[in-house]
Structures are given as structure tokens and as C-alpha cells.
Amino acid sequence: MKKLKIGLLSVIAMMVLTCDRDLENELRPIEGTVQVLVAETHMEVGPPMIVVHFETQARHPCSNFEIQNEFSIESGMIISDFEGILEPSLCQGSQGPATSTKFTDLQDGKYLLEINYEENTDLYNITIAVDSIAIIAEEQSFTNNPFEVSWRFPKNSLAYLCGTVNGSQEPCDNFQAILNEMNMEEFTFSDEGYTPYPDSTIGFGYNAPAAFYKYTSDTDFQEASSKLLEYDEDVNARELGVVMFLISWEFNEVSIGTQQ
User: Fold this and answer.
1) For 78-87, what is each residue's pLDDT tens digit?
2) Helix, coil or strand: residue 31
3) Which of 63, 57, 62 shows the shortest CA–CA distance to 30?
4) With contact defined as beta carbons under 8 Å apart, do 148 and 132 qualify?
């Protein structure tokens, strides 16, 4: 399930890199199952947006293969007509799924998602609430939804991420203790469902589970960011082999230390 989240984040970056694709390329057929996710994410700094994301379980030679589809929203209906897999003119990255990510201005309410490919039609009931997005299958033949609920970014919230090269947990715990002393409330997401923030750093000797906090105003995030930079002055995170991130619900990010 984590692979779907990584796929969603990477495909947003790839959108800029594949704008010059050759639309004359012959479309490949869609083979196997397509995963469906409706969730919040960011294109840029600012309030999050709801996306409808499709991703093949089948792997392709490059990570920027696309699911070509016609997409529309009208009168409570979200319709996606799949046409096939588009091979890019320029291969980016290593093997990966074919994807399609549609940024929307969907508001709270109920919708019917209809996905068509050849003679098949799959249907999902979508309910967008203040804190969550539910996606419940009504008809499935060539798609599935690995998550029946996606949690939305709580307003005025942040994620704290930490990883260490040598596998030590102590530096991560030390700065979290500083955050715990601030005027913020730590919270957790339910174990069930898709979380909008990363769950942890990746690729370090120790990857701390993400910690999540709610705060009152933007000045609280600014204060936490200042404390992170002050902590770096005290310990020199890069020399220590530590990376730390603070990421806000509006995609503001402050980081220190070694990047891998």
C-alpha cells in the first residue's frame, strides 16, 4: 500500500518532465488491475487539493508511462474514460507503474465515480467530508481501491520526520522532546486508511515514525521551524548524519541535515 503513496508523490514531479510527450505514439492496452485513490495532496505551496489518482499494478520500463484518459466532472458524476497506456517519448526513471493524476476542485459532498475501459464499467461512491474521503466500490471488474478512506490534512497541522545514517534513535527523540514542549497538540491518524503525510523518511539506518501536531496559528509553525534551525546550530545535523523535516498542511517545509 505504501507503494501507491510513493507513486502519487513521484507522478506529480513527473508531470512537469513529461509535458513534451508525443501524442502520436500508439497506445498500449491496459493489462491487469488499475488501483484507484481519491486523496488530498499538493501541486505547490498552498492549501491541499483533492486528486483522483489511477495507477496500474503492472510495471512498465519507465516510471513516466501514463494512463491516457478523458476525465470530466459534472452534476455529481466523476467520469474517466480510459483509452490505453501512453509510452513517453523520453524515458524518465526506472521501472514503474503507468499513472494518471487529476487535480480537481471537488467540494464536500457525495459523488459517483465511473471508470470506463473497452466494454467494462466500474463504479465507486465517493463521500468527501471535512476530515476524510470515503471511496466505496459499487462495481469492480478491472480496478480496485486499496483504501476505503483517505484522511485529509487537518488545518494547521504539521508532520515531523527524522532519519539517521548510523541507526541511532536518540537525535530524533531529542528534537521531538522540544516539539512536545511547544504549544501544540500531538495527534495520530487511524491505522486504517491512507494518510496524506509521509509515514517516515526512507533509506536511512533509522527512519523514525512520523509525528503529527496541530497548532493554533502560522506563527506556531514558524516557531517550530526556528527551533529546528537552532537545534541544527547546536548539534550540526549534517556532521551527525541526521536529516529532519517539518512539513505543514500547506506544504511549507523546513529541513536540516544530510540528504540521501
Assistant:
1) 999 999 999 9
2) coil
3) 57
4) no
Helix (H, G, I), strand (E, B) or coil at 223: helix
Predicted pLDDT of residue 62: 93
Look at residues 237, 249, 182 and name the one whose alpha carbon lies nearest to residue 204. 237
Does residue 48 contact residue 248 with C-beta atoms inside 8 Å?
no
Tell me the three cell numbers of residue 25.
Answer: 505514439
Coil, strand or helix at 183: coil
pLDDT digits (tens, 9 = 90+) for 202-228: 999 999 999 999 999 999 999 999 999
Q: Which residues pair with 56 in a beta bridge?
A: 34
CB 66 within 8 Å of CB 85: yes
Instruction: List, in sequence order, every residue forming a beta bridge with 164; answer none if it has no partner.
Output: 206, 242
User: pTM, whole model, 2 decimals?
Assistant: 0.88
User: Between helices 170-180 and 218-235, what is the axis angle to 10°?
Assistant: 140
Distance CA 258, CA 137 (A): 43
Angle at 118 between CA 115 and CA 122, to 5 degrees: 25
Strands 66-74 and 77-86: antiparallel
Q: Are 145 and 137 in contact (CB under 8 A)?
A: yes
How far apart are the C-alpha atoms of 80 and 73, rounded to whole Å?
Answer: 9
Residues 137-150 as b or e (16 or more Cβ within 10 Å = b): eeeeebbebebebb
Q: How many Å apart are CA 139 and CA 212, to the nearest integer?
A: 36
pLDDT band at 93 (very low <50, low <70, confident <90, very high): confident
- Residue 54's DSSP bridge partners are 36, 100
